[in-house]
Design a protein that fits this description.
Elements: H1 6-23, H2 27-41, H3 57-77, H4 81-96, H5 108-121, H6 125-134, H7 143-157, H8 160-165, H9 176-191
Helix pairs in contact: 1-2, 1-3, 2-3, 3-4, 4-5, 5-6, 5-7, 5-9
Protein name: PCI domain-containing protein
Domain PCI: 82-193
InterPro entries: 26S_Psome_Rpn12 (IPR006746), CSN8_PSD8_EIF3K (IPR033464), PCI_dom (IPR000717)
């Protein structure tokens, strides 16, 4: 068995501490560890924008993707939409540019669905549709993507009761934050009538 690269071991250990802090909802520790992790990731040549073929490339790419996925989850837990957008754009190349080099993440569709929901909440409908068009047609069968698409359709049709009721059937617990924001928007539309 090959010995693990010391940098890879160090990043993995920091990431384990970050995940533990995230489980505890210790956001200060999470932000501190995440800042260190992002700096540490810059030392991996296999990551964007270089994409060099290193001996540990698959492991490095998978680890970096997992870190950015957890960063997105942290931003939702902290209800920080700016951090969500920043972390999502750092994560996206791991889905689009190297998705064929590493095993698919179970978090990919929940996070892509979250991003669609964020765009809907922010009334960025053109970007919502652009992101949707970039997804493979099979993605529309995923409950997380399907949920966001159905919400957008209900919202555009003015079927606000369906939008409000959709919170009860969120496909992933991370959706609740954006669903609550969408519900506020709907209630302000309804009260403005």
């Amino acid at each position: 068995m090959a010995t693990m690269d010391p940098k890879l071991t160090e990043v993995s250990q920091f990431f384990a501490r970050f995940k533990a802090a995230l489980t505890r909802n210790d956001f200060d520790a999470c932000n501190n560890l995440l800042s260190h992790l992002k700096v540490m990731l810059t030392e991996f040549e296999s990551l964007p924008p270089l994409f060099e073929e290193t001996t540990n490339a698959i492991h490095e790419l998978s680890l970096a993707r997992d870190i950015y996925e957890h960063a997105v989850i942290l931003s939702v837990k902290m209800e920080d939409q700016d951090a969500f957008e920043r972390d999502f754009f750092q994560l996206k190349p791991y889905y689009t540019d190297v998705g064929n080099k590493i095993p698919q993440s179970p978090q990919e569709y929940p996070i892509l669905g979250l991003n669609l929901l964020r765009l809907l909440v922010q009334n960025r409908i053109a970007e919502f549709h652009t992101e949707l068009e970039l997804l493979p047609s099979t993605a529309l069968e995923n409950p997380c993507i399907k949920h966001a698409v159905e919400l957008e359709q209900s919202f555009m049709e003015g079927a606000y009761n369906r939008v409000l009721n959709a919170r009860q059937t969120v496909p992933h617990e991370t959706f609740v934050y954006f669903m609550d924001l969408l519900a506020k928007t709907v209630r302000s539309i309804l009260s403005g009538r």
